[in-house]
Amino acid sequence: MAYTVEMFERAQQIIDERRRENEARSQRRREAFEKAEPEYTRCKSEMIASVSEVIKAIELSPEKARELIETQRRRNLQAQETIRSLLKKHGLPADHLETRYTCAKCGDTGVLDGRLCACQIEVLKGLAFAEAGKKSPLRFCRFDDFRLDYYDTAYVEEFRCSPRERMETILSFCRDYAAGFDTDSPSILMYGETGLGKTHLSLAIAGEVIGKGYHVLYNSAQNIFNELQRERFGRSGTDGQYEAMLLECDLLVIDDLGAEFSTQFTNAALYNIVNTRINQSLPTIISTNLDLKELEERYTRRISSRLIGEYAALFFFGSDVRQLKRDE
């Protein structure tokens, strides 16, 4: 994934701030422990003195140097053991006085073995998704705001349940999906007439998944394809970054599939998104007002077969809830 210079600079600032905060916390812990346990100060002095003595070994004969180094090593170890005993006496963990870095691998430097550490890459991804989110009409909905009383309780013979019973099942499924989400979760196809809550529930899932720390990208199908076209023909200046995020994010939510102007480009782009994410076992949520037959007619068989065969299908039916709300 491509990142701007500004993103690299901001990521390094975040990593540096983490290091400063973690080191400041550890310093405060050491100062507090020193006040509570004066013996800790003596042990620290012993350890510093032992290191100073070892430096003198440079001027000694090899035999005397080895003897001095061994003596100071035992002195240092004894001081360390005393500190561990003091910590235990105060009910504190053995690493209480150590600096607890957010990333233990790189020590919050952002660099590991001369390359970007995974922690800094994760920060960069977060910045990139935040930037992409500015282009999305993302307004979080909540499960608690989803009202089942808008759905009719009359039994529908064709579907062997009432609209409300169906929505109770779908709402429960979506809650469980969000609560147990990970990158191995299945993809979801929400389909049915307009105004039945597909967008609300997909956004409710997105909101909870983001709250868990996952990278989520949401947008309408039309906006996604427009942005991909701008990127493909060099009008966005993002050098493939948006497409990379679509393919790599932990959860992709495509709203209102089928409302876009269908072209050879949009079909190819949709196939690439759907197929790549299936191959990478990354979940996608797609909502559409098209039924399964219309999906097969509108898109190539390569696309429709994957949507119908690989996604968990949630069928919405009933009266337009948005219309009912407007009539209140």
Plain-language structure description:
The chain is α/β, with parallel strands linked by helices and 328 residues long. The chain has two domains: 5-120, no CATH class; 135-327, P-loop containing nucleotide triphosphate hydrolases (Rossmann fold, 3-Layer(aba) Sandwich). Helices cover 56% and strands 9% of the residues. The chain contains twelve helices and seven strands. Strand 5 (251-257), helix 9 and strand 6 (284-288) form a beta-alpha-beta unit.
Short description:
Helices cover 56% and strands 9% of the residues. It has helices at residues 5-36, 39-55, 62-89, 118-133, 163-179, 198-211, 221-232, 241-248, 264-279, 292-298, 301-310, 321-327, and strands at residues 111-112, 115-116, 188-192, 216-220, 251-257, 284-288, 312-316. The strands form 2 sheets. Strands 4-5-6-3-7 form a 5-stranded parallel β-sheet, sandwiched between helices.
